[in-house]
Amino acid sequence: MRLVLATRNEHKLRELAQLMRPHELVPLPDEVTLPPETGTTFADNALGKARAAAAATSSTSIADDSGIEAAALGGAPGVWSARYAGDEATDEENLAKLLEEVPPDGDTQVRYVCAIACVEPGGGEHVVHGRCEGRLTHEPRGSGGFGYDPAFVPDDYDDERTMAELTPEEKDEISHRGRAARELKLILLEAEDEARTRGPLADLLRSRRNRARR
Description:
Layout: E1 2-5, H1 10-19, E2 24-27, H2 42-57, E3 61-70, H3 91-101, E4 109-119, E5 125-136, E6 152-154, H4 168-174, H5 176-197, H6 200-213
Parallel strand pairs: 1-2, 1-3
Antiparallel strand pairs: 3-4, 4-5, 5-6
């Protein structure tokens, strides 16, 4: 299935293109304008972008919204993760602000959260969520990943590597985005199977079987 990915973030495009295989992700056309992320939840923001892309392209579209939640900050930065240090802030500036506000000798528990929305041109919608628990290190390490990855040590591995030090395959296996993508792929697979079993050919075969039983 071809899916339009409603994002301008090249990192997300590369990561989700791998995670959503065998589905094909195509970039959002340049002329399509996405709504601002003004929602109070990850699902709100993801749905807004996916709906806009589906309406503009007449194609099934997906969008994600994701971020990091720090226990010491009551769940902040949350939906404001991408602009935590300001609307034009870089990944490095956002990470520096988070490390400044979470004391290294305090509660360093964090979790990544992702919501992926899938919207069909006809109005069908699905939203899935994925989470990855971990803790912050105040000594960022690694050159892989993006965002807060250099300071995020996932609970899934016990070797103290950050997300930015994992191989792409290791990260995909445990990441919030990877978990959400696998759930969405399952939903799409079930929908495709249902469409096949309810299609004209399937109806014809069922009709012939019913006549043969009479």
